[in-house]
Design brief:
Elements lengths: L4 E2 L12 E5 L5 E3 L2 E4 L1 H13 L6 E6 L5 H14 L3 E4 L2 E2 L7 H6 L1
Helix pairs in contact: 1-2
Length: 107
């Protein structure tokens, strides 16, 4: 999957024992780098994982940058139903020449 780009990113925002949901360009789900995972199985697995946690109900979300918004919305709803309280998007570092680089130079 090709990840969206961003500036000033933590090199690895997700840590040990974090839950990472990936969605590739075809809309297939991956849980912690393993998959593809059937959406029904994924939802049940996530419910069990979040039920075992008393706090820190965060999911780190990685999606291909060409994924249709509807597929992203489906993933958000699945995660919400599963018990996650915070969803953090993960991007890759942006290369020079981004949209806002010229505005920063003018300041």
């Amino acid at each position: 999957a090709t990840m969206p780009k961003g500036k000033n990113l933590d090199s690895r925002p997700e840590g040990e024992n974090e839950i990472i949901l990936g969605v590739d360009a075809a809309g297939q789900y991956f849980l912690n780098g393993k998959g593809p995972v059937d959406p029904v199985v994924l939802e049940e697995t996530l419910k069990a994982m979040y039920a075992a946690r008393t706090e820190d109900k965060i999911v780190y979300f990685k999606a291909d940058n060409q994924l249709k918004f509807g597929r992203i919305q489906d993933a958000v709803e699945l995660v919400r139903r599963s018990g996650a309280r915070v969803m953090a998007a993960i991007t890759e570092p942006q290369v020079q020449g981004g949209l806002f680089d010229a505005a920063v130079k003018e300041e």
